[in-house]
Amino acid sequence: MLPNSPIGKAITYSLKLWDKLTVYLYHGQLQIDNNLIENCIRPIALGRKNHLFAGSYSAAQNAAMLYSFLGSCQRNNLNRHEWLSDILAKFNSSDYEGKFSDLLSNRWKKQRV
User: Is the entire prediction scored with pTM above 0.70?
Assistant: First the structure.
């Protein structure tokens, strides 16, 4: 292998960083790759491109709020359909006397328990 060939350069680079590349071997909680994080942020990255075509600035803001609310439901382990159905019914009800901030997913979950 010649040192200036592409594979030679890759091996030289790896050997210079070998101590840092093998750190995960000494810590059981570290992963060899970052696939879990990549899979978590993939919808956000795809959304950035797709949301450029929301139609208008206010439509983009509304979509962003809805995605945030549904993401919050997912983070709080809620059934998004159940949460959305319940809060929309309360929004349309003239009998609802609570604060709308109580309908946020983290507070809604506490009220349901």
Answer: no
Residue the block writes with tokens 């809060």: 87
3-state secondary structure of 55: coil
Tokens of 109: 């979950």
- First-last CA distance in the chain: 66
Largest CA-CA distance found in the chain, in angstroms, rounded:
79
More confident residue, 36 or 8: 8
Question: How many Cβ atoms are within 10 Å of 109's Cβ, its own excluded?
Answer: 14
Give the SS3 label for residue 32: coil
Angle between helices 80-92 and 57-75 (to 10 degrees): 120
Token pair of 94 as six digits: 């003239």
Please write the tens of the pLDDT for every residue from 101-110.
Answer: 888 888 887 7
